[in-house]
Every structure is written in C-alpha cells, then in structure tokens.
Design a protein that fits this description.
This protein is mostly helical and 147 residues long. Helices cover 80% and strands 0% of the residues. The chain is built from six helices and no strands. The mean pLDDT is 88.
Length: 147
C-alpha cells in the first residue's frame, strides 16, 4: 500500500499518509525503508517527517525509538547546518522568495527539533542502544536548538 502511495504522490505524499496511520509499527517500517533514500529528502520533506519521528521517539518499543534516532542523526548531519545558518543569518534586503521559503521551513524544523530535544531526556535515562543514540543526537542538536 505504501509503495502505491509513494508511486502516486511521491515521498511527501507517502510521509503525509504515514503520519495519518494509527499503527506506529508501520510508521517505523516506512521510516526504516526511507533511511536508504536520504537523497530524496529536501528541507520541506524533512520538516514533514519530523512529527512522525517525534511520535516514534515517544513509543515504548525500543525498535521504534532506534529507527527514529538513527534517521534523525542522518538527517541532522544533512540539514542541521542549513537550519543553523538560515536561522542565524540576518534578513536579506529586498524580496527573495526562496530565502523566505527556506526561512519558514527552517523555522518549522527548528520548532519540531526543540520538541524532539525534550523527548530525548527520557530516552537518555534508558539503557542500551536507544540511550546511546539519544545522547549522540542530543549532542548534535545542542548547537542547533540553542541560539
């Protein structure tokens, strides 16, 4: 079913469909398959996926948290510098529609990432791989979410 949605509506449509699914295990499976397709991501798709990843972090199932943490670590390596530089730069003079769109997307990502940082605290208290990944992600996000 998800392959059909992906073929019909692209990655953004697939992520929107995944976000509506009540079965968090299916969400984790789809996110797991997207890990191999990082080249398809842009800032807009990343911002659409963040709420799904935040939901997986709040799951009591270790595998769900690990899938979300691994995906977040990969995507933060790609988009973290863009978000940081966009939000920390001064506003351009004149009208620049692409810069305004990038600023809106970066702001949306930043807001989601602030919520994700809060969700990391309980994960860091656990033991095992999820705690280790949560600590690594927390370190990666420290510079990004603190302006």
């Amino acid at each position: 079913m998800m392959r059909h949605v992906f073929n019909l509506n692209g990655i953004k449509g697939a992520i929107a469909a995944v976000a509506k699914l009540p079965d968090i295990a299916v969400q984790a499976d789809v996110v797991s398959t997207l890990k191999g397709k990082l080249g398809l991501f842009n800032l807009d798709i990343f911002s659409s996926l963040l709420p799904v990843l935040a939901g997986l972090l709040n799951s009591k199932t270790e595998r769900h948290a690990i899938v979300a943490l691994e995906m977040l670590l990969d995507l933060i390596k790609i988009f973290g510098p863009v978000i940081h530089s966009t939000l920390s730069s001064s506003s351009p003079v004149g009208v620049d529609l692409q810069a305004e769109q990038r600023l809106q997307r970066c702001t949306r990502c930043f807001n989601h990432l602030q919520k994700i940082v809060q969700a990391l605290q309980p994960l860091m208290m656990r033991s095992g791989q999820s705690a280790q990944l949560a600590q690594e992600l927390n370190m990666s996000l420290q510079d990004l979410v603190v302006f």
